[in-house]
Amino acid sequence: xxxxxxxxxxxxxxxxxxxxxxxxxxxxxxxxxxxxxxxxxxxxxxxxxxxxxxxxxxxxxxxxxxxxxxxxxxxxxxxxxxxxxxxxxxxxxxxxxxxxxxxxxxxxxxxxx
Amino acid sequence: xxxxxxxxxxxxxxxxxxxxxxxxxxxxxxxxxxxxxxxxxxxxxxxxxxxxxxxxxxxxxxxxxxxxxxxxxxxxxxxxxxxxxxxxxxxxxxxxxxxxxxxxxxxxxxxxxxxxxxxxxxxxxxxxxxxxxxxxxxxxxxxxxxxxxxxxxxxxxxxxxxxxxxxxxxxxxxxxxxxxxxxxxxxxxxxxxxxxxxxxxxxxxxxxxxxxxxxxxxxxxxxxxxxxxxxxxxxxxxxxxxxxxxxxxxxxxxxxxxxxxxxxxxxxxxxxxxxxxxxxxxxxxxxxxxxxxxxxxxxxxxxxxxxxxxxxxxxxxxxxxxxxxxxxxxxxxxxxxxxxxxxxxxxxxxxxxxxxxxxxxxxxxxxxxxxxxxxxxxxxxxxxxxxxxxxxxxxxxxxxxxxxxxxxxxxxxxxxxxxxxxxxxxxxxxxxxxxxxxxxxxxxxxxxxxxxxxxxxxxxxxxxxxxxxxxxxxxxxxxxxxxxxxxxxxxxxxxxxxxxxxxxxxxxxxxxxxxxxxxxxxxxxxxxxxxxxxxxxxxxxxxxxxxxxxxxxxxxxxxxxxxxxxxxxxxxxxxxxxxxxxxxxxxxxxxxxxxxxxxxxxxxxxxxxxxxxxxxxxxxxxxxxxxxxxxxxxxxxxxxxxxxxxxxxxxxxxxxxxxxxxxxxxxxxxxxxxxxxxxxxxxxxxxxxxxxxxxxxxxxxxxxxxxxxxxxxxxxxxxxxxxxxxxxxxxxxxxxxxxxxxxxxxxxxxxxxxxxxxxxxxxxxxxxxxxxxxxxxxxxxxxxxxxxxxxxxxxxxxxxxxxxxxxxxxxxxxxxxxxxxxxxxxxxxxxxxxxxxxxxxxxxxxxxxxxxxxxxxxxxxxxxxxxxxxxxxxxxxxxxxxxxxxxxx
Lengths: 113, 889
What we know:
The complex is a heterodimer. Chain A is of the alpha+beta class. Chain A contains four helices and five strands.
C-alpha cells in the first residue's frame, strides 16, 4: 500500500461525522470512498473497521441509519447525522483544531525564543 | 450519558443477535457489490474486482466478527455461553442437579438464618446512644469465681454512685409487678414492671416518645406517684391515645400519674416490662439502705476514655471498704464485676446460638464437600470429552471456567432457594426460641442478603475449584491414549474423592457427637425429677397488694375463703397455696443462722430459699413428708406463725448429725437479729429450676397473712381428670371475691416444665437434624465413590472372578475400599470432637463432654451407615459377569 498512512485512532469517527455533514445521508461504501477521496488518496482505510465505528456512533446516538436505494438502484443502508451528531461535529472539530494548534506550536519554528 | 446509552444498547445486543447478523450481512453484501461495480467500471475483471473489494474490507468474516463484538459485550457473552452450557448440562441430567441444589439450599438457608439471628441478637450494638460505653455491674460472691455473680444491694449502689469517678451516670433497676385495675368494664391485669432509679433512661440515652422521664424529685420516698408506660402497653391498653400522659391509672389500687411513654423499640431489660416506676418511691427504706438485700441490676455509662478495667478497679476499691465495714453484720459481696451491657443482655443465648451457627457452618462445609465429590465424579465421566476439547485447543482456563460455572450455577440456584428458606427459618427460629432477647430486632436486611450471596459464591468456587483443577490438569490427554476403559488412570481421582470423603466423615462425626451430647443433655433435663407431681396440676399466680390487703386478717380471710371455694369445686382433688411452685425459678432466699449451733464465723453467711405453704400445699403437690408434720389450721394469723418446714437438702446441709424437728432457725429478713422459727417437719427435695441442683429450702406458713412475706401467691390445684377445665371456674371464683385482682401465669405444671426444657429441646433437635442430614450426605457420598470405583474396576473384578476369586473375597475387597476412608474419618472426627465438645460444655446438663455412650453410639451409627452405603456396590461387584466384563474391553 505504498506510503499511505493508516487512520489514527479516534480520528475515524470525526472523519465519518464530517463526511456525513458535508454529503448528507450516505451508505457505508460511499462514506469509505469519500474519506479516501478527501484525503487525496493518502489514507489507507480498512473498510472493515468503518462499520464498527458507524455502529458505535449509532449506539451513541450521533447517527441513525435506514435502508434505502442507492444511485444504481441497489438496496443499501444509509447513515445520516442526528441533531446530536451535528452538535458533536462542531464540538469535536473545535477540540481537534485546538489539539492541532497546540501541536503546531511545538512543530513550527519558535518565533520569540 | 451517551456512553451509558451505548452500553445499554450493547447489553441489549447480547440478545437477539440473529436479526442484527442478517441485517449486517445484507449491508456488507451491498457494500461489496458496489465496490465490485466500481472496480469493473475501472476495467477489472469481476473476479479481480471482487478480490480487491474483499482485501479492502479486510475479509468478510473478520468484518462480521468485529461488528458483532461492537454490537454486544464480548465478556458477557463468554460468561453467557458458559452459563448456557452449564445449564444445558444440568438440564440434561436433572437428577444430578436437583439433589445438590436442595442440599446447598438447606446449607445456605440455615447459615443465612443463623447469621441473621446472630447478627441482630449478638453483634448489633444495643439501640442506645454510644452503646460501647454502657456496662452492667454485678456483685461477685467469690472473688476467685467469675461466674459467682449476684445482683446488687441498693446500699452498695448508692455508695458506688457517690464515690466512683469513672462513670458519667450510674443507674439501678429491679424487677417488680403491679395489679392494674380497669376502669369501667376492663379486666384487671398483672403487669411485669421495673423500679428504676430516676436517671435510668438518661444513662441509657433514651428519650421518652411522649411526655417526660423521671426526675430526682420523683425518685424519693413519699413523692407523688408517677409511672412511665411501655409503648406496647400504651398501644394495647390505652389505644395509643397521647392524652393519657398527665392522667392517672390505678396500680395496686392506688393512683399513679402517667408522665411519659417509652419509645416503641425500647425493650430493655426485657419486652415483658410494661411499667416503670421510680425506685425510691416504691422500695422500702430498709431495702434502699441495705447492703445485704441483693435485688438490683446496676447499669452505668463509662466516661469517655475510661476502660472497663479501670472502672472495675475503682468500684472494687469502694466495695472492699463496704465489705470490711458491714460484712460482719450481714452478707456483703466482696467484689464487683463489670461487663459490656450487650453481653449482659444476650448472656443466656450466646453459647447456644454460636453452637448452632457452628453446626450449620459444618453442614454447609459438608454439603460443599459432597458437591465437590459429585463434580469430581462427573468430571471423571467426561474425561474423554475434556481430553478431546483440550486436544482441539480449548484452553485450561476455559475448561476450568466451565466447570466452575457449573458448580456456581448449582450454588446460585441453591442460594436463591436458601435465601427464601432463610426468611422463613429466621421467623421460625425467633418465635420458637422462648425468651430470646432482642427477638423483635431480628430481620433479614441487606447485609444478610450480602452474606448469603458471598457464601453462595464461596461455596460455588470452593466446591468447583478442586474438581475443575483435577479434571483439566496434567495427564488430561492420557484419556485419549488409554484403551476405552482404564484401571490405573482413575486411581488419583478416586483418591481425591476419598480424601474429600474422609474430611466429610470427620466433620459429620463432630456434628454427630455434639448433637448426641446435646440430645442426651436434653433427655436428662426432660427426665429430671422436680420432686413433685407434675401431671394434672394447674397453677395460677396473683399478688395481694396494699392498701387493700394491709392487715393479716384481710389476707388470711381471702386465702381461706378462696381455698374453701376451690376445694368445693367439682373435680378438684386437692388445692394448696405457695409463693412459687417447683421449677418456676429461684424467687428469693433469706439469710439464716442457727440458735442451737455455735455462731457462724464472722463474715460467713448462710442462705436458704424462701417459700410459703398452706396446710394442704404439700399434699396437693405430692411432695412427700419425711419427718414431723406440715402446717395445720392452728398456724394462722401472725400470733402463732413461727414455724417452718424444711427440705431434706436443708437437713443434709445444716442438721446432718441431729434430729431437726424442734430445732430453731433464725431468718434474718432485713435485720441482724431476725426472727426465730421452730422446725416442725421435713419434706422431700424439690428443684427450683430444672437444670440446677437442689437448694436448701424452707417453707413459712402462708396463712400467717404476713403482709410482707405472704402476699405473693401461686394457687395449685390437682385434679384426677383434665385439670385445665378448672382454669375458668377458678378465675371466676377469684373475680367474685375481688373483681380488681388480676390472675396471671395460668399454667399446668407440665407447661412450666416444658417452658424450661423448650429451648434445650429446640437446639438439641436442630443440631440432631443437621447431624442426621450430614450423615445422610456422607453415606450418599460414600455410596457414590464406591459405585464409581466398582464400575471403574469391572474389568479387574471380571478377571478376578475368572481366576476363581470367591464372592466373599470380592465383597471384602470393595468393602475395605469404602470403609477405609470411613475409619480414617471417624478417628479424625473423634479427635476433633474431643476439642469441639469442650466448647459446648456450658450448655450441657448432667452430661460430660466425653460421654462414652454418645461416642460409642456415634461410632456404631457411622460404621453402620458406612457399611450400608458400601453394601450395594459390593453386592454389585459380586454380580459382575466375567465374560461380559472381559468382552466389553
